[in-house]
Design brief:
- The chain is mostly beta strands.
- Helices cover 0% and strands 53% of the residues.
- The termini are far apart.
Length: 123
């Protein structure tokens, strides 16, 4: 099992930036993909971005592609989500997740999840 601990959420204004962190520990040897998902009140959990365990091949949901950047520090086993030009519709609880499947954006294939961190963008 992989343990994931997120941090970095908060309350920001429209247009601000925020960086989320996710520290992975435990049995990470079988992890192929690290991802970020988000869930807004009353909505389904949705894919945001993901990256291969080696810190390569990032991919994004279309609405964040030009504003968010996912990266990974392979020494610290920490994944980051840099979020720029934040919008009110980015308000959600953001979850870090780990998958044994390569190049997936389907929540079903992510077997380990963090506790979530709240991001609120105020207009």
């Amino acid at each position: 099992q992989v343990q994931l601990v997120e941090s970095g959420g908060g309350l920001v204004q429209v247009g601000d930036s925020l960086r989320l962190s996710c520290a992975a520990s435990g049995r990470t040897s079988s992890t192929y993909t690290m991802g970020w998902f988000r869930q807004a009140p009353g909505k389904e959990r949705e894919f945001v971005a993901a990256i291969g365990w080696g810190g390569i091949n990032p991919y994004y949901e279309d609405s964040v592609r030009d504003r968010f950047t996912i990266s990974k520090d392979n020494v610290k086993n920490t994944v980051y989500l840099q979020m720029n030009r934040l919008k009110p519709e980015d308000t959600a609880v953001y979850y870090c997740a780990a998958s044994r499947t390569s190049y997936t954006r389907v929540a079903y294939y992510f077997g380990s999840w963090g506790q979530g961190t709240q991001v609120t963008v105020s207009s």
